[in-house]
Amino acid sequence: MKQFSVRKYTSKDKQEWNDFVSKAKNATFLFHRDFMDYHQDRFEDYSLIIEDDNNWVAVLPANRVGDTLFSHQGLTYGGLIIKDNMRLEKVIFVLKNILEKLELEGFKKLNTKEIPLIYCNGFSDEFCYALFLADAKTIRKDTLAVIDYSHPIKLSKDRLEGVKRGQKNHLIVKEENDFASFWNTILIPNLSLKHQIKPVHSLDEIQYLKSKFPLHIRQFNVYKEDELVGGTTIFKSENVAHSQYISANSSKNELGTLDFLHHHLITEVFKNKKFFDFGISNEEQGMKLNGGLSYWKESFGAYILTQDFYEVETKNYTKLEQVIR
Question: What is the pTM of this model?
Fold first, then answer.
């Protein structure tokens, strides 16, 4: 059986890590260390580097909580990031070596969340299959609402009427580099009122990330004359434009704010992308669905894609020792 070395990431590896991520077949800018490390005070980073004769073949963005290693909890998606030419058999051996290493270091479990295939440059389900062989359990499923640009986009009657209301009310969409107005006027008050929560990213954090990834993080605001009435924050990767935050004031239905905004983004700004991802509509670890929110996203012509979360016991590395004939 092929043996790979597994070691913990250190700050000395930053440049090589970023270089590897930039060439991997299933990575986006979220795995760049400048993105991962902006909230390093909140997580005990325990990312792993997997090598074959000192050559990097894979990385696992991760953090530690007690005796469990998590596919990094500060990221929307994760899992094993691999080289483009990595074969399935080697990925199985890599997982075996990872679990064995974690077992020796006192970890009991590995929890991972897959990166949806729309974010990958080609099919990339090797790690999911390896987890299956290791008897991993599916512990959560989220549902993403995704527009596939290879199919004609068909808006529902409700969405078309919303777009028309936006046109009638002379709404204007502006891309802006300053996030303060949207955060302070729209996003934070809405999340506090409706869900008693704050945005995942503080204003300072999103401004910092924008400075590091100006082409990948973009803010689009909607105005009724000079009044800010709504907006969305887009995380843009090579294949996907993803609405990270969507929010509007109480006049959104009357004005057609979010329908008008997203119709503009989908049909104009990001029309050359492969996919537009509205994100999830799930709550309580995937066990509840916000039906109204899911309907709104699907009525733009979005299809449903699932994202799986897995848990595997580290002792199960032995299950991978005899699976290759």
Answer: 0.95
